[in-house]
Write a structure and sequence with these properties.
4 strands; mainly alpha; 275 residues; Arc Repressor Mutant, subunit A; two-stranded antiparallel ribbon; 57% helix; two-stranded antiparallel sheet; 3 domains
Amino acid sequence: MERQRRRSRLRAYGREDQIRPRRVDAAPARAVLQRLLDSGFALERIAVAAGVPHSTLTTLRFGRRGAHAGVHLKTIEAVVAEALLRLEPQIISTSTVPATGTTRRLQALVATGQTQSAIAELLGRGVGNLSPLVHGKRQIVTAATHDAVKALFDALWDQRPEGPKHDAARRLAERHGWLPPLAWDDPDTDPEPPAVDRDPDLVDDIAVALALQGDGPRLTPAERRICVRTLWARKYSDILIAATIRCDAKTVGRIREELDLPAFDQIELIQHRAA
């Protein structure tokens, strides 16, 4: 269906020539790929840096599978060849980052009800390309992909779309154990697992009491909300709340926005402390 929609869009814009991608001789691109592999770069890292599916490079390097196993491609899509021919070793070394934070952010968006197809469309890529990343099957991503997902996460983390397809997305996240946005302090650096192995809606009154004293264990998302609301009522700033319950100030800000608690004016905080 996605391919059919794409073909219809291309025809509507008079771009029928793009329905069947232009193909070129595969030999030059295969030679570049082999040189990069001989230099010690992993196939996946090359694929990420070039913006090319891993499976495409696997077929280019090792040939077809099935009945034509081992038969090398004579031609490849021009865009793939161009991506490989302009790829420099230093680009591969500097343009990629660990995929952990990107995967966590994508999973968190699905947990809020965002569908993978909607996320893919907003990022300008296909679902087939995005799905392995959502499911944690990629170890690295380009810095551009990381930044694009982070920006999308920052824009959508507090939205909860409603409807059957969004409910299905939330059920998918629940089946896989994907955590919601507020479960993370910093998706890029949080240890694994990010919280105690408890129901995220569970509230342990003792844990909350200890956290409010600055001595608490790792909290569930529900416990964090209680702590933020309580400390906000005491006129604590986001930074002070974060230091008390041992999380990131950005997380406190997200929770406060979710609870519709306004930020305090700095003069108001100073006057409160003086009183």
